[in-house]
């Protein structure tokens, strides 16, 4: 086994009483299987695949130590011998694959979405529906005892350790910060009093769970909210936690109510490793860094520069369970890279659905979406090498089908070639790289620059049409003007626009185009941090200072016919980021717009009954898509088995998550 390329990442970590096989921690993720019927069987397959793939230490999604700590009324709880027995299927599965696993204990505090919420003080969070009740001293002691009992039960369940969720603004964090702790007793007031709760928790857990049990503490090192902790306070707490018995300190970045992006694709890779580094010489226990680390090389660079002792990655293990073993075998090009989109993982979970992964729909469906060897190795043609065509072709070839892939363009990737040119979406090129590699490995025969005709497809057993979409032309008088350009032509041909631009259509594509048109000329990590008001010294509370509004060099109007909020884009967990960026750059957001005509004066519109003329140099059309599919009817007349997938089937708003899942599901059942 060749581990020369990533010697720091793949080095074992001695914890004294046990050893981790490498420096990779799979960060906690809630999958939705924790509460599902027969969910533990599926969850054990999910974790076993990651242990088999070489992860050093897995951390589960969060389980509450008691009823009041549940995030939702029906959220997972871990507080009984029965729960411990149920979890054995998970720990056994991981241990059989040579892995180690820790149970995350998470008390939601004021983030609980039920009327039984409790916190340090009765202060409702900006993202919650319920005002919590302030915990009595008795309740505090009982909660500490509940954490300790859950840790002891975790040991009985076969877990190698627990992670105490002390960041992201959950209960432990709520005690630490003035923002949410207005108490006047021994649990509030001074910083020494406010950190008594996490220290008492760790001491109680260590006492009950024993000396040879991993305790990870997820410490909020950068709160990114007003009245958060300063660096001096974070260092003080870290030292006290080490004394209290913590084995590993994991980094937490930002409360859930923070108005700063921390994990979305717009966040630069490894954007917060400097935070962990600030504690490096302050404590003697291993430090884990996290957030937007998605390749072995980025991880290796962090460890080799001594910014941290371990790397936490969560979503990259949804994208590819074999991330570590591929790094060990010097096969980094074979890794299905996480693009940080959130569309199939966090967006799904926040909608109460099961998590998965846009680039790997088998994630969390390991027992259901299985690519078994085909009994009949039929000859299959795939028309269109966009995301749907690529996903189907490689999945079908993996099953043993003889697959030919055709595309009229000279390159593969379809709409992803446009997406990767949007600032903050550069990661999409990694998916094209991965699929290109899979085409080679699975033996798909690729013909590019050829618009295949129906007659050429007669000899195939199955034909899959995945020809994608083209921009829809809205019915506006004057739309044929030279001022008007569609989004595909704009991005593909890198057309230079004037200083005043109107964007018609405020869906995901309109938001992306407006972002691209207002992007600063130079955007490195320091300027990105400054743009979001992040204080790298963490001398200001929460690591925030008031930032300058970044106005764009170009004036842009983003419009939609529908009344209401404009500029959020489709992402449930990322929409606010898009809107905030556009607002900071001075983009005028207009809803309830009627488009009257386009002429020399510009774009004539009516907004809330008031006519306006926008004196613009250019108008970009982002007003939806139509299918470019024309083959399927001809093929049906020729009695060819034909399947239409992706944008060819449903044009609408581009949804890569849907089209890739649909493609793999079709390949699995053929």
TrEMBL record:
Family: In the N-terminal section; belongs to the NADH:flavin oxidoreductase/NADH oxidase family.
Keyword field: Flavoprotein, FMN, Iron, Iron-sulfur, Metal-binding, Oxidoreductase
InterPro entries, per database record: Aldolase_TIM (IPR013785), FAD/NAD-bd_sf (IPR036188), FAD/NAD-binding_dom (IPR023753), NADH:flavin_oxidoreductase (IPR051793), OxRdtase_FMN_N (IPR001155)
Biological process according to GO: fatty acid beta-oxidation, unsaturated, even number, reductase/isomerase pathway
Residue ranges occupied by any NADH:flavin oxidoreductase/NADH oxidase N-terminal domain in the UniProt entry: 9-333
UniProt cofactor(s): FMN; [4Fe-4S] cluster
Spans through the membrane: none
Record protein name field: NADPH-dependent 2,4-dienoyl-CoA reductase
EC number: 1.3.1.34
């Amino acid at each position: 086994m060749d581990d020369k390329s990533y010697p720091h990442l793949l080095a074992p970590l001695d914890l004294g009483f046990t050893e981790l096989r490498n420096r990779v921690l799979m960060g906690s993720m809630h999958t939705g299987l924790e509460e599902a019927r027969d969910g533990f069987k599926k969850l054990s397959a999910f974790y076993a695949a990651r242990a088999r793939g070489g992860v050093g230490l897995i951390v589960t999604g969060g389980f509450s130590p008691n009823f009041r700590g549940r995030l939702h009324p029906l959220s997972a709880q871990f507080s009984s011998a029965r729960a411990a027995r149920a979890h054995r299927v998970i720990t056994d599965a991981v241990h059989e694959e040579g892995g180690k696993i820790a149970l995350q204990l998470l008390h939601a505090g004021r983030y609980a979405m039920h009327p039984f919420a409790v916190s340090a003080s009765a202060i409702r969070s900006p993202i919650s529906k319920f005002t919590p009740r302030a915990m009595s001293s008795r309740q505090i002691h009982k909660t500490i005892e509940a954490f300790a009992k859950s840790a002891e039960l975790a040991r009985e369940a076969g877990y190698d350790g627990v992670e105490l969720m002390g960041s992201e603004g959950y209960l432990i964090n709520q005690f630490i910060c003035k923002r949410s702790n207005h108490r006047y007793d021994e649990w509030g007031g001074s910083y020494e009093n406010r950190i008594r709760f996490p220290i008492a928790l760790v001491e109680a857990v260590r006492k009950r769970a024993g000396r040879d049990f991993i305790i990870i503490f997820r410490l909020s090192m950068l709160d990114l909210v007003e009245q958060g902790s300063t660096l001096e306070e974070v260092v003080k707490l870290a030292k006290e936690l080490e004394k209290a018995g913590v084995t590993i300190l994991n980094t937490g970045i930002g409360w859930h109510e923070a108005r700063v992006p921390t994990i979305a694709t717009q966040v630069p890779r490894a954007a917060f490793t400097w935070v962990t580094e600030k504690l490096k010489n302050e404590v003697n226990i291993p430090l884990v860094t996290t957030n937007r680390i998605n390749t072995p090389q980025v991880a290796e660079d962090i460890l080799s520069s001594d910014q941290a002792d371990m790397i936490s990655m969560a979503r990259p293990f949804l994208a590819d369970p074999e991330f570590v073993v591929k790094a060990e075998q010097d096969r980094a090009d074979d890794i299905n890279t996480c693009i940080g989109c959130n569309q199939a993982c966090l967006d799904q979970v926040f909608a109460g659905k099961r998590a998965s992964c846009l680039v790997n729909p088998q994630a969390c469906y390991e027992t259901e979406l299985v690519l078994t060897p085909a009994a009949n190795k039929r000859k299959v043609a795939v028309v269109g090498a966009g995301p749907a065509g690529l996903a189907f072709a490689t999945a079908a070839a993996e099953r043993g089908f003889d697959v030919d892939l055709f595309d009229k363009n000279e390159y593969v990737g379809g709409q992803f070639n446009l997406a990767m040119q949007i600032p903050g979406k550069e990661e999409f090129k990694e998916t094209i790289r991965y699929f290109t590699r899979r085409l080679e490995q699975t033996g798909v025969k690729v013909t590019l620059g050829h618009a295949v005709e129906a007659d050429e497809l007669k000899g195939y057993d199955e034909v899959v049409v995945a020809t994608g979409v083209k921009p829809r032309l809205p019915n506006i008088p004057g739309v044929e003007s030279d001022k008007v350009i569609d989004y595909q032509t704009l991005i593909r041909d890198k057309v230079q626009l004037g200083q005043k631009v109107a964007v018609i259509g405020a869906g995901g594509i309109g938001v992306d185009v407006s972002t691209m048109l207002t992007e600063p000329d130079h955007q490195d990590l320091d300027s990105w941090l400054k743009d979001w008001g992040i204080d790298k010294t963490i001398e200001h509370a929460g690591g925030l200072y008031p930032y300058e509004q970044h106005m764009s060099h170009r004036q842009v109007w983003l419009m939609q016919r529908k009344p209401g909020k404009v500029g959020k884009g489709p992402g449930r967990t990322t929409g606010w980021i898009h809107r905030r960026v556009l607002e900071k750059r001075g983009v005028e957001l207009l809803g309830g717009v009627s488009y009257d005509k386009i002429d020399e004066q510009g774009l004539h519109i009516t907004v809330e009954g008031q006519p306006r003329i926008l004196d613009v140099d250019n108008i970009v059309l982002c007003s939806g898509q139509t299918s470019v599919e024309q083959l399927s009817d001809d093929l049906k007349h020729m009695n060819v088995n034909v399947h239409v997938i992706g944008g060819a089937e449903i044009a609408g708003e581009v949804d890569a998550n849907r089209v890739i899942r649909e493609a793999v599901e079709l390949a699995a059942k053929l």
